[in-house]
Amino acid sequence: MVPLPHSLMAVTLIAISILCPSRVQSIGVNWGTTASHPLPPSNVVELLKLNKITKLKLFDSNPQILEALSGSAIDVTVGIPNSALRTLNSSVKSAESWVHDNLTRYLSGRTRIEYIAVGDEPFLQRYGSQFYPFVVGAAINIEAALIRAKLSNKVKIVIPCSFDAFQSESGLPSKGHFRPDINKTMTQVLNFLAKTRSPFFVNISPFLSYYQNKNISLDFALFKETAHPHHDGRRLYKNSLELSYDTLITALTVAGFPNIDIVISQIGWPTDGAPNATVSNAEIFTKGLLDYFHNRKGSPLRPRVMPLEIYIYTLLDEDQRNITAGSFERHWGLFTFDGQVKYQVDFSQTTKGLVNAESVEYFASRWCVVNNNINMSNASGRAMEACTNADCTALSPGSSCFNLSWPGNVSYAFNSYYQQHDQSADSCDFGGLGMITTVDPSVGSCRFNVELKASFSDFLRGSKFDFSLILLVVTVWLFLDRV
Ligand SMILES: *[C@@H]1O[C@H](CO)[C@@H](O)[C@H](O)[C@H]1NC(C)=O
Ligand SMILES: *[C@@H]1O[C@H](CO)[C@@H](O)[C@H](O)[C@H]1NC(C)=O
Ligand SMILES: *[C@@H]1O[C@H](CO)[C@@H](O)[C@H](O)[C@H]1NC(C)=O
Ligand SMILES: *[C@@H]1O[C@H](CO)[C@@H](O)[C@H](O)[C@H]1NC(C)=O
Ligand SMILES: *[C@@H]1O[C@H](CO)[C@@H](O)[C@H](O)[C@H]1NC(C)=O
Ligand SMILES: *[C@@H]1O[C@H](CO)[C@@H](O)[C@H](O)[C@H]1NC(C)=O
Ligand SMILES: *[C@@H]1O[C@H](CO)[C@@H](O)[C@H](O)[C@H]1NC(C)=O
Ligand SMILES: *[C@@H]1O[C@H](CO)[C@@H](O)[C@H](O)[C@H]1NC(C)=O
Ligand SMILES: *[C@@H]1O[C@H](CO)[C@@H](O)[C@H](O)[C@H]1NC(C)=O
Ligand SMILES: *[C@@H]1O[C@H](CO)[C@@H](O)[C@H](O)[C@H]1NC(C)=O
To answer: What topology is assigned to 24-330 in CATH?
Structure first.
């Protein structure tokens, strides 16, 4: 009986295609550059390739970055910063220049731009109404510009929605709704997305849910089997991600868009800057997240339907990020600021573990510390001053360098300032209190960093220099031409 195996196979194939969602889900990363010495784009693109990461979300449309991604086979989301929304809302012309300057030439090259994210969490509650009134107008203008440039079939417009844009006072997902102050705008956003068949980008943060909400336990946020589940009628929630996700599903359903595709555009766990922001918790969280995603069980309100994509927040630590929300904001990286692995996870089913960035260039092995052979009565004041520019977030309560007592913490502040100023001798002066050493002052998990030499900011400075050089050459040439 030869035909039987064949028909069995056919039945199995049909069964598989019914049970598994049709689209391929994938995992990407966010990459921001709010750092004093960002890792250069060439190193980052290499890091992504080494780790087989094929989806990337950016917060702007930096030309050097987009050029470095050319030919990489990485699908890119470019971002429009909140500060640009007002102008883009005000005229189609400005949207046309944005598309022309930031998109057209890369698309005609070999950079694969998949989405344009309009705004960076414009609905974040702490921004008030600074940005969101311009979001839909900006999106509509960009869409018009894309149509005009014949790019609307290649690139989709999305609007990243923050974790605090939807809520449920009782904590029950079935009572979810959008925040009342953005309710009207959300209706316009959803209509726009439905019309352009774009997915709903949402940032979900079990870390922040735990950090800000007494009702979420750490175990529940970390996907632990032992976590006490939350009940919502007959539905059972075993982790914070599912709970937030279904709160959003209810909000979308109430708004009339129950079936819109969802992309989780930011999700992660920080490794420093708050008591439970540790490497070991981040490892547990990320493993739990990847297992959850690969299991494809879906959530109680969307069983077996997974988000289209998820983007880990974030690729690298960034030492200049705004810390209004907390010191942890500078420590979300899957990798350290210089592209070194913090913990091991199997990022995709075809890779085994993560690998470090290669060919990273550092300044010399030199640190700035306090000279404790002289009168140090002014040291604390100097350290405080240094910290207004430097990154002292590792000194905050519960962080990796919190255990350094005075004057070790003064040295930490001095060194951070010195490294951020490219190890220039005068940046280790501090009124005679600073001293340069070649002995690494790091203790245990408290790392005294040495900054990156070939950094991206040098690269930018370099390209400005090239430009003025070209101007000079052209001027001289014009001058000679006249003579
Ligand atoms: C957005 O632009 C439109 C068209 O120029 C304008 O009518 C509207 O007032 C702008 N929105 C805001 C919030 O300023
Ligand atoms: C994108 O285009 C706008 C408008 O032309 C321009 O002002 C802006 O600098 C560009 N952004 C980047 C990151 O190049
Ligand atoms: C907290 O969670 C419990 C069950 O885990 C629930 O009964 C209660 O309503 C929740 N409260 C809030 C404010 O979310
Ligand atoms: C806004 O609120 C109204 C009344 O509560 C509700 O019917 C509507 O669905 C809400 N819209 C969104 C987008 O949540
Ligand atoms: C979380 O933080 C609390 C408060 O600092 C601490 O007692 C607890 O041990 C931490 N747990 C984990 C798993 O990090
Ligand atoms: C950080 O963000 C807050 C609120 O969003 C803002 O008021 C503040 O000016 C920002 N700080 C810096 C240094 O940009
Ligand atoms: C250190 O300097 C302060 C004034 O800046 C002075 O009051 C103090 O006596 C000095 N200490 C020593 C040990 O010299
Ligand atoms: C401490 O700072 C004050 C004011 O800048 C200065 O007058 C004083 O001499 C300093 N003390 C030491 C010991 O450096
Ligand atoms: C800080 O020191 C305390 C007590 O010596 C210890 O329990 C704790 O683990 C240390 N924390 C860090 C982050 O090293
Ligand atoms: C260093 O530690 C001392 C004493 O524990 C504290 O008063 C001071 O604020 C700390 N300085 C910094 C920059 O963290």
So the answer is: TIM Barrel (3.20.20)
